[in-house]
Amino acid sequence: MSISGAFANALTGLGAAARRAEVVSANVANAGTAGYGRRVLETSAQSVGGSGAGVHVDGVRRQVDSALLASRRLADADTAAADSHAAFHARLEEAVGIPGTGDSLSGRLAALESALIQAGSRPDSQTRLAMVADAASAVTETFNSISREIQSLRMDADQDIAQQVGTLNDRLAMVDDLNMQIRTALSAGNDATGLMDQRQIVVDEIAGIVPLRVIARERGGIAIYSPTGAVLLDGRPAEFEFSQSNLIVPEMTRAGGGLSGLTLNGRAIDTAGPRSPVAGGSLAAAFAQRDEAAVAAQANLDALARNLIERFQAPGLDLSLAAGAPGLFTDDGAAFDPTTETGLSGRLALNSVADPARGGAVWRLRDGLGATSPGPVGNGELLHSFAGALADERAAASGGFSGVRRGIGGLAGEFLSQIGHDRQMADAELGFSRTRGNALRASELQGGVDTDQEMQSLLEVERAYSANARVIQTIDDLLNNLLRI
Known about the structure:
Blueprint: H1 3-29, E1 38-47, E2 53-63, H2 66-96, H3 105-121, H4 126-187, H5 193-209, E3 213-216, E4 222-225, E5 231-233, E6 240-241, E7 262-264, E8 267-269, H6 282-313, E9 329-331, H7 344-347, E10 348-350, H8 364-367, H9 381-391, H10 408-446, H11 451-484
Antiparallel strand pairs: 1-2, 3-4, 4-5, 6-7, 7-8, 9-10
Helix pairs in contact: 1-11, 2-4, 2-5, 2-6, 2-10, 3-4, 3-9, 3-10, 4-5, 4-6, 6-10
């Protein structure tokens, strides 16, 4: 080998060592940076000037475990959905109230039954009759409040859907733009790993909204598909559309056309079921809450309100009432009509004739809601009948109840139990999803930047740099000796 060849070999070695030191230092500096993929310098042997062999820097490769990354992204989608469901059910349970507390639905009904029993023992006491009216009003207000909260949950889910759809469209467009930048950088021979890091972060954001699969394309590009095969990005980004509602009431449903669905490139798609393009992420969870969970909760609450009204509207309970007249509890002042059950809990009201707040008289609780004048103050028969109506065992005529005959307190307890069970299941699912996601994330980090390994690589760089520098120094000494001859 000639002196010039040896010199050229050593120079390429120095250049490769310097480039490797730069890559290693970048790895160490970004060991805790989200989305950062470990860099590896790729080199190959090259012929220098027809003699000897130097080292050629082929480029910097971004090292990522694609299979592990795909599994972690699917876990992120599950966690995002579970987190959304857990928050929804916790808020619903808080609205209904914890059994045994005075301000819960069951607590309000128990307080009404107690007030009726006390008033029945002293029917002449205006104070105790007023307590019955207050307790009955508290029951209706609790039903109304829970119904409003359920619709508020649906409104929040609807707003959340609109925000997620906007974010989804924006992030898909960002990935498309980054694909173009990466292709341009690679075509020009530039390093595109920083752009790939940015793209991974954006794709991770999308993965929380909808589950996805990433497929590598030529020149560093990627395509994004849903697990069911729907194209989210391949050549151009897909476009999702959704129309947010300004107001949601119990009668409004997606099936009835009152609420917007989701479209993909102008085509309506399912948001539930195993074949849905968005099934499994936080977007599908928001649709499930708005169109399924909240609707079911409203239906059960309405069924409970119906059962309460029918107990006091039963023929023969209050002989002072005319046929078809409303009982102690009304549908916004009117008798209950089975064809208008939807939203009944939000319209539930105490009969105005016994409500002092609306000009009624509490003595009608004792003498009959249809009575025109007070009767004997010692007659507590109707008050006892009212208390018995609450305790009377009957099955709910609608809703998702078990069909077992229960008193109103038992039915309320079953309703509360359903809500609590759903909340516990949501919490359990969230715990499982988080544990799985954390395990996959830990495995991903183990395959990322290992600072100990990088420090060892720096020692190798130091030895290589020193060896190549010594070759150059030796060549310099040889040339100096030759010149002195």
